């Protein structure tokens, strides 16, 4: 462990085989649980059954900036009222050649997160996966994205972007030459003031299936793949979209015509 000045729990360094479980993280620190390696050696970590609330940035982070988190399980946590991201997972592209275990984010409840993330709209979400190592996002419940738990819309982004257009319940952002597969299945999304699921940039190997998306006020599913090297291996099947009383749409798919 290291300096925990900006987080309730910090695991920082060459960390493996770590369990973070059963904690209540409810301070006003930037971050609830912060797990980050200073090399490509953060792995076999389990973040299970924690209650994380009221943080000014992220609820749970594994991997950050250029560092790597692979073989990490984030399961059964309850994350509430975190202003930027509920659960943020990142894998470093440099480690993909040697570490391909990916990240599993499963069975979490993420309630009333996102909507006040400064000018970094790529981190505005309930669950955000960034990088190239692959991720499985399954069985999660994401509620009230972009709002407080009292139901008030947040709009804390730097002008001209707004929380209304940028908050996303589940977001996957790829980088060049993404190596891992992204699987998003069996999640329930109820009320997002932006998107339900947004896939951005280079995510060629993708499965989105059996998700239920209710009242996403911008779009239920939005794919912006203009930077993708290959879009041949994508399946979008058996998802249920219900716009309810919102003015949101269904699916928008934008791709590079050369691929």
Task: Tell me about the largest β-sheet.
Answer: 9 strands, parallel
Strand content: over 45%
Secondary-structure-derived class:
mainly beta
Strand order of the largest sheet: 1-4-7-10-13-16-19-22-25
Give the overall form: globular
Query: How far from one another are the termini?
Result: 45 Å
The helix tally amounts to 1
Rg over CA atoms, rounded to whole Å, is 17 Å
Extended strand count: 25
- Uncertain regions: pLDDT < 50 for 5+ in a row? 94-100, 157-161
- Mean pLDDT across residues: 77
Proportion of helical residues: under 10%
One letter per element, helices H and strands E, the order comes to: EEEEEEEEEEEEEEEHEEEEEEEEEE
Please describe what this structure looks like.
The protein is mainly β and 259 residues long. The protein contains 1 helix and 25 strands. The strands form 3 sheets. A 9-stranded parallel β-sheet has the order 1-4-7-10-13-16-19-22-25, with no helix packed on it. It has an 8-stranded parallel β-sheet with strand order 2-5-8-11-14-17-20-23, with no helix packed on it. It is globular and about 40 Å long. The N and C termini lie far apart (45 Å). About 5% of the residues have low confidence.
């Amino acid at each position: 462990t290291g300096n925990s000045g900006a987080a309730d729990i910090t695991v920082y360094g060459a960390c493996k085989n770590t369990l973070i479980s059963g904690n209540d993280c409810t301070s006003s620190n930037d971050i609830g649980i912060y797990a980050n390696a200073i090399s490509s050696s953060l792995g076999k970590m389990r973040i299970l059954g924690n209650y994380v609330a009221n943080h000014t940035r992220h609820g749970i982070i594994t991997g950050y900036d250029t560092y790597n988190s692979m073989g990490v399980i984030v399961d059964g946590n309850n994350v509430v009222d975190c202003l930027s991201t509920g659960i943020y997972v990142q894998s470093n592209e440099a480690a993909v050649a040697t570490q391909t275990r990916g990240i599993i984010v499963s069975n979490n409840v993420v309630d009333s997160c996102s909507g006040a993330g400064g000018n970094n709209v790529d981190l505005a979400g309930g669950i955000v996966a960034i990088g190239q190592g692959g991720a499985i996002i399954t069985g999660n419940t994401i509620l009230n994205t972009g709002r407080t738990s009292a139901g008030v819309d947040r709009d804390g982004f730097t002008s001209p972007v707004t929380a209304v257009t940028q908050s996303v319940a589940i977001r996957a952002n790829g980088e060049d030459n993404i190596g891992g597969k992204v699987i998003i299945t069996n999640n329930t999304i109820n009320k997002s003031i932006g998107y339900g699921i947004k896939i951005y940039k280079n995510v060629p190997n993708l499965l989105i299936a059996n998700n239920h998306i209710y009242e996403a006020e911008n779009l239920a599913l939005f794919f912006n793949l203009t930077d993708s090297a290959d879009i041949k291996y994508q399946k979008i099947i058996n998802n249920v979209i219900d716009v309810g009383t919102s003015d949101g749409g269904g699916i928008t798919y934008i791709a590079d015509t050369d691929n």
